[in-house]
Amino acid sequence: MEYLVQQVINGVTLGSVYALIAIGYTMVYGIIGMINFAHGEVYMIGAFTSLIGIIVMGLLGVTWVPLALFMVLLASMAITALYGWSVERVAYRPLRGSFRLAPLISAIGVSIFLQNYVQISQGARPKPIPPVIRGGFELMTSSSGFTVTLSYLQLFIIVLTIVLMVGFTYLITQTSLGRAQRACEQDRTMASLIGIDVDRTISMTFVMGAALAAVAGMMVTLYYGVIDFYIGFLAGIKAFTAAVLGGIGSLPGAVLGGLLIGLIEALWSAYFSVEYKDVAAFTILVLVLLFRPSGLLGRPEIEKV
Amino acid sequence: MTAPLLKVEHLTMRFGGLVAINDVSFEAEAGRITAVIGPNGAGKTTVFNCLTGFYKPTVGRLTLTDAKSGHSYLLERLDDFRITKSAGVARTFQNIRLFAGMSVLENLLVAQHNKLMLASGYSLLGLVGWPSYRAAERDAVEKARFWLDRTGLLPRSDEPAGSLPYGDQRRLEIARAMCTDPALLCLDEPAAGLNPRESAELNTLLLMIRNDYGAGILLIEHDMSVVMGISDHIVVLDYGKKIAEGSPAEIKANPDVIRAYLGEDDTTEALAEGVVE
Fold first, then answer.
1. Has residue A173 got a pLDDT over 70?
2. Where are the domains of chain A?
3. pLDDT score of B2
4. A247 vs chain B: nearest CA distance in angstroms?
5. Which end of chain A is more exposed for a tag (fewer CB within 10 A), N or C?
6. Does the residue B93 lie in any domain?
């Protein structure tokens, strides 16, 4: 029982990270109908900028952890958002109106480029950092002596994710930018006919997706304490799986999918085998694509005539 | 003399070998309803598509002059979203294009996007509930409610736009276009599919927009009760050419127009019998 609770806590933490990345996939798919395969790399850039940020904070002598983390978070979001914006501007926008496969191929190109760019500029070796947030709550102890802990870091990740989700939902449903995004999602031509700058709205979607991926990158840097230039690939594909599982194009779906994938992974590692946790996640992808391609919360695609 | 609101000069649109519009010139004034009529395939919708940036005209110049600021815009050179944002041209479609998944009210709010984006500091201030944004948002809702009231849609403002009955969707499309503060409102067959009562209501609405609001209206319509009832000026197209232009009374009596609509033989008979209306 205690063991299960611990795994659920771990799974939700991991799931929060996936959910944040998955939102980027699902939003971009919603608005331009394209899978942004470079999104995993954007998340990796977010992790690296956070790592650099934490080191810079150390050099500057900012020792109060909440302030340091807050500043790193903002800086990392801003820089990663700039990457997201540039990727869209350089690699996707010129191909808009081209055949469907073109931006997809371009995305794979960007993904390879970003990996190699980080590998060359930062080195190929894994980068460790010492734990920034230590300690936690001991929730319960079983008779056999197993203690369930919720670390402060896990709490921080889960709470930050919830705060971001709430803010993000507000942004999409209540603000003018969110309305414009939903309008572009439904009918881009009509959106431009009521005076919405569709290109800018699409750019903003990439910026928002990248900013959330940066948060995920920072969480992972803190949580695992080690990153390398290749982490974007696996995390990206898992977040994509999460987006598909939840129903691509649906924001609540991305969050739900992310949490489910996180839980499945954690529970599978705990009760079956750690080596095959990725297999479990991707089996889900295959099953969803076979039996419910529209995902858990997605609407089935209706072909317009 | 002030420049007319819209000046179309020598507009020609070719698709490969097909000449959809051939050297058409006309003008539309602010505060007047200008109807563009003609048989099927005459090129009416193509004119609209050129005006709203769907097509880049092969030849021709489309000048829109804003009477308030005195600014002139060459529509054929503007990015499509600027045609609405800067030049103030709004349009509705023959086959309705609402944002079906959004509520009726949201459809009208999203049309005021540009004003709100400025007020909200590109949504950053909006996120933290900045007072100026709140005020702008209130104004936007106010304006949306005004048009909902005028179109009789106020009780349905929270329903998804896609679930409205057909006639309501048509009026909502006009309301949405009006929420962009247009100088020129282009309506593509607004009375299509409406019953006589609804189309009479539409006439009242359009006359209200013209009289109280001062917007110029460009109207494509087949329903002659609408065209003859409310137009100030009529432009007749046939096979991509302008064949006549004038007041409703002049157009009714113009033999070329009758010929285009009825064909050669029937026209002579009809004119002889004096039954043509």
1. yes
2. 27-230
3. 64
4. 17
5. C
6. no
Chain A closest-CA separation from residue B264 CA (Å): 38
Q: What is the mean pLDDT of chain B?
A: 83
Is A193 within 8 Å of B80 when comparing Cβ atoms? yes
Please report how many Cα atoms fall inside a 13 Å half-sphere around the Cα of residue B182, on the Cβ side.
30
Q: Which of B84, B110, B177 sits opposite A180 (nearest CB)?
A: B110
Q: Residue A302 CA to chain centroid, in angstroms?
A: 28
pLDDT in tens, A242-301: 999 998 888 889 999 999 999 999 999 988 888 888 898 889 889 988 998 888 887 765
Q: How far is B258 from chain A (nearest CA, A)?
A: 35
State the angle between helix axes of A251-271 and A2-32 in degrees (0 to 180), rounded to the nearest 10.
150
The larger pLDDT score, comparing residue A62 to residue B177, is at B177
Q: Which two tokens stand for residue A245?
A: 């599982």
For residues B200 and B78, membership in a common domain is answered with yes
**Residue B117: domain span:** 98-180
Are B146 and B10 contained in the same domain? no
Residue B80 and residue B122 share a domain = no
**Residue pLDDT, tens place only, A7-39:** 999 999 999 999 999 999 999 998 888 889 999
Which chain B residues are closer than 8 Å to A174 by Cβ?
Answer: 126
Domain boundary among B141, B165, B180: B180
Q: Do residues B76 and A139 make contact, with C-beta atoms less than 8 angstroms apart?
A: no
ipTM for the predicted complex comes to: 0.80
**Contact (CB<8Å) B116/A176:** yes
What CATH number should be reported for the domain holding residue B241?
3.40.50.300
B157 and B274 part of one domain: no
Q: What is the 3-state secondary structure (H, E, C) of A128-144?
A: ECCCCCCCEEEEEECCC
Q: What is the pTM of this model?
A: 0.86
